[in-house]
Design brief:
Number of domains: 1
Shape: globular
Strand content: under 5%
Low-confidence stretches: none
Order of helices and strands: HHHHHHHHHHHHH
Length: 312
């Protein structure tokens, strides 16, 4: 249980950094010291954790259909260990599918996959429409006027804070699936858990997002504060919708990749009319194949676990 929690806590934050804090880091790394960004993210994490604990459900309802196993086995730690390896190679795997597949029944896992697929499609279509409309009034490729820079800078910190809270409400379940639920966790134990997560965040910011950050840097304008702010805001709003849609977990990674794909298609079509749209297909297909790899590994883990359980 402790090994699984430790691996999950580090790998979930490290792998999902691209979708939650990636644009924030990319657009601020040359202007703000990493420890100020870390302190900001840590304060939100601490408040979110204690809020969930005091409200009676630290996982924010994401584990209602995924009970704690009667006994932990070595294969429960296999998923976060695999996720850690994928993170080292910069593969944006779905932490939800990989981690929770080990604990979920086949029916629940199927519902999680369906919800994640819907999230991917909704994010891609919404992003394409939103950035197509935005282009009518805003050209993200032009420089932000000097008198507007402070506004966008402050707005980005607010939108990132909102996104970070919404992401934690979804994906912190991938960490706490290894721990007792509800009142079974003492306040002191929770404080120790939060300290571990804060230290993992420090490493994330000190390394500028790590290897997984490349998926953000490869997209148009994500180093610019205005573009980063808009990506974070619309991503947070999509997560907010799915949080209250139902209490099933979902792959926020799929939602994020869908959002970036839809945005990239819209930006390329609008500002590169002289170039063929197929130019960006290799990048978009590559991102899609990476999340499909994570799905394939998740299903493989379930098959392996069912096979192992048949001998017990």
């Amino acid at each position: 249980m402790l090994i699984g929690f430790s691996l999950a806590a580090y790998s979930v934050i490290a792998n999902d950094s691209a979708q939650t804090l990636g644009t924030f880091i990319a657009s601020n790394s040359k202007k703000t010291k990493w420890y100020w960004m870390w302190a900001y993210a840590s304060i939100i994490l601490i408040c979110t954790m204690y809020y969930g604990y005091l409200s009676g459900d630290i996982a924010h309802g994401r584990l209602n259909k995924i009970p704690l196993p009667d006994q932990f086995h070595w294969y429960h730690a296999l998923a976060p260990a695999l996720l850690l390896c994928m993170t080292r190679f910069g593969i944006p795997a779905s932490t939800t599918l990989l981690t929770l597949s080990v604990f979920s029944s086949e029916v629940v896992l199927g519902k999680i996959i369906i919800k994640s697929a819907v999230g991917y499609g909704l994010a891609a279509i919404s992003a394409y429409l939103i950035w197509t409309l935005l282009s009518k009034v805003l050209n993200e490729r032009t420089k932000v006027p000097e008198n507007k820079k402070n506004f966008w800078r402050r707005f980005q910190w607010i939108s990132t804070g909102f996104l970070w809270f919404m992401w934690l409400s979804h994906d912190i379940a991938n960490v706490f699936v290894f721990l007792p639920r509800g009142d079974d966790i003492s306040f002191l134990a929770l404080t120790g858990i939060i300290a571990f997560l804060v230290i993992a965040l420090a490493h994330l910011f000190a390394t500028n997002g790590g290897k997984i950050q490349e998926i953000v840097l490869s997209k148009s304008g994500t180093r610019f504060v205005r573009s980063a702010c808009l990506v974070d805001l619309f991503y947070a709003l999509i997560l907010w919708y799915f949080k209250y849609y139902n209490d099933l977990p979902m792959s926020t990674t799929w939602v994020f990749i869908g959002l970036l794909s839809g945005r990239e298609l819209a930006v390329h079509r609008i500002f590169n009319e002289d170039k063929k749209i197929k130019v960006i297909f290799p990048m978009l297909v590559g991102d899609f194949l990476k999340i499909m790899l994570g799905l394939a590994l998740s299903v493989a883990l379930v098959v392996i676990i069912v096979y192992l359980n048949s001998f017990q």
